[in-house]
Design goal:
Blueprint: H1 2-20, H2 28-32, H3 43-51, H4 55-61, H5 72-76, H6 83-97, H7 103-119, H8 124-135, H9 140-153, H10 168-181
């Protein structure tokens, strides 16, 4: 089973390897990266590991998650390689491979955006109800009770019924995002 996962992962990383196969290891990307100091492996080392087919080492490093997509490496690369796109693609591969690990985070995001889509802004009370209900853990609300009480005491929670009907502009915006995310 482990070998099949490695083969699948190697296939997913193949397009990224193609993006960086012309890397000459000059180090400009690492020298330009504002986050390189915090990375376990600098961008230059990541590209070398990808070129060498060290799939597990790249993923274990996790350095690509620190990329802030500033495009400095891409702009300064003497070979004109799409390095920021490669970092982004690495993030996407990991997100798809490790989807269960991030399930609650993804659910949190979806419920947040559901509230924003419905009202044009987040309605905290509705959002909390949507998220906590979707988590299907009856004890979870009790973990957040102290925070809820603090927010309520500072008048940060609104218990008024939310406005009726959505905003057509918000629907159009969300539809466009959906199209862009699902484009081939």
């Amino acid at each position: 089973m482990k070998d099949a996962e490695n083969v699948q992962l190697a296939e997913a990383l193949a397009p990224i390897r193609d993006m960086v196969k012309a890397c000459i290891q000059c180090g400009t990307c690492s020298a330009s990266c504002p986050n390189a100091f915090a990375m376990a492996d600098t961008p230059r080392r990541l590209w070398r590991m990808l070129q060498a087919g060290e799939v597990q080492m790249v993923l274990k490093s996790g350095s690509f998650t620190l990329c802030s997509a500033c495009y400095t490496c891409t702009l300064r690369c003497p070979r004109g390689l799409p390095l920021t796109d490669a970092m982004s693609a690495l993030k996407q591969v990991v997100a798809h491979q490790d989807a269960l690990r991030f399930a609650s985070t993804t659910l949190f995001y979806r419920k947040f955006m559901e509230s924003v889509r419905r009202h044009g802004r987040v309605r905290e009370t509705e959002f909390m109800c949507l998220y906590l209900t979707a988590m299907k853990n009856p004890l979870l609300p009790f973990q957040f009770a102290p925070l809820g009480l603090k927010l309520f005491s500072r008048k940060k929670l609104d218990f008024r019924p939310p406005s009726k009907g959505g905003d057509a502009r918000m629907d159009a915006l969300f539809q466009k995002v959906h199209e862009l995310e699902n484009a081939p």
